[in-house]
Amino acid sequence: MCLTALAVSGPFAQAQTVTPDLFSPSRTTQVAPPDSPLRRTAAELADPLNDPRLRDRDRDGRAPSRIGQVPSYGLPAANGASTSGYDSLNRKRQQPKYYPAQARPKRPPGPGTPPPAPPPRTLAGQLRLSIPPSETANKPPVPPAMAGNVVGQPPRKRLKVDDDPFGAVGDYAGSFLIKSAVELSAGYETNPGRLSVPQGSPTYVIAPEFLAVSNWERHALVADLRGSFTGYTQNLTPNADGTALSAPLDIDRPNFIGHIDGRLDVTRDTRLMGQARLLVSTDIPGSPNVPAGLARYPIYTTVGGTFGVDQNFNRLQVSAGATVDRTDYQWSRLTDGSLDSNDDRNFSQYGGVARVSYEVNPAVKPFVEIQGDSRVHDLRLDRSGFARDSVGGYAKAGSSFEFSRLLFGEVSIGYAARNYQDPRLNRLDGLLTTASLTWTATPLTTAKFYSDTQLAETTLPGTSGVLARTYTVEVDHDFRRWLTAIGRFTYGTLDYQGDNRLDKIYSLSGDLIYKMTRSLWIKGTVRHDILDSSSPGSSSQSTVMLLGVRVQN
Question: What residues does 355 pair with on adjacent strands?
Answer without folding.
Answer: 319, 369
